[in-house]
């Protein structure tokens, strides 16, 4: 038995995609997105991106009124990424903070997407994938954010939430402009998520695989 198979012996896939990953028929996330598959198991990402990093963006106490009385749970918002073009956002709820974070991490892995990076700034011709390749926009609720290519060395010029999300993708330089209720952390984070997803929606699959 190979080390790859040994690492997966305790995982019993529930989907055809999971079985293909476990059997070694699919060996990268690029193959998944080019093939148009939908990730429904976090173990798929665990196997294809073993060095995934995570960070908690927000934790809130939410309350719900039921017939039995008022129930309180923690709601966590988490970002995961490999700093090399893949990232995801996820939300988890539970009575305990740690469990809420764990659920959010699993959700973020299922929501992982590829991001096209490049050198789209007219002020920079280095050719390295350090910024967005062109202007992209995203929206969530009342929040709208625009991401612009920036020259190498500028850094990420954005609010704290957007900056964290953008850096998890591996983008080191970027201009941003945001409108709406940017103090609402989930909306700001998901607007940024939407904008970054648009970097590969606007190019062909063969382009963003490169």
Task: Give an overview in words.
It is a single chain. The protein is of the alpha+beta class and 210 residues long. Among the domains are: 3-48, no CATH class; 136-208, Ribosomal Protein S5, domain 2 (2-Layer Sandwich). It has eight helices and eight strands; from the N terminus they run H-H-H-H-E-E-E-H-E-E-E-E-H-E-H-H. It has helices at residues 3-7, 16-22, 29-34, 42-48, 97-110, 160-169, 185-201, 205-208; strands at residues 53-66, 69-81, 86-94, 113-114, 136-140, 143-148, 156-157, 174-179. Strands 1-2-3-4 form a four-stranded antiparallel sheet. Strands 5-6-8-7 form a four-stranded mixed sheet. Strand 1 (53-66) and strand 2 (69-81) form a beta hairpin. Helix 2 (16-22) packs parallel to helix 4 and helix 6 (160-169) packs parallel to helix 7. The longest helix has 17 residues, at 185-201. It is flat and about 60 Å long. Mean pLDDT is 89; it is low at 1-7 and 203-210.
Instruction: Please work out how many helical segments DSSP would assign.
Output: 8
Helix content: 25-40%
Helix-strand pattern, N to C?
HHHHEEEHEEEEHEHH
CATH class of the domain at 136-208: Alpha Beta
| CATH topology name of the domain at 136-208 | Ribosomal Protein S5, domain 2
Biggest beta sheet summary: 4 strands, antiparallel
Percent of residues in β-strands: 25-35%
Question: What is the approximate shape?
Answer: flat
Distance between the termini: 32 Å
Low-confidence stretches: 1-7, 203-210
Question: Helices and strands in order, then pairings?
Answer:
Elements: H1 3-7, H2 16-22, H3 29-34, H4 42-48, E1 53-66, E2 69-81, E3 86-94, H5 97-110, E4 113-114, E5 136-140, E6 143-148, E7 156-157, H6 160-169, E8 174-179, H7 185-201, H8 205-208
Parallel strand pairs: 7-8
Antiparallel strand pairs: 1-2, 2-3, 3-4, 5-6, 6-8
Helix pairs in contact: 2-4, 6-7
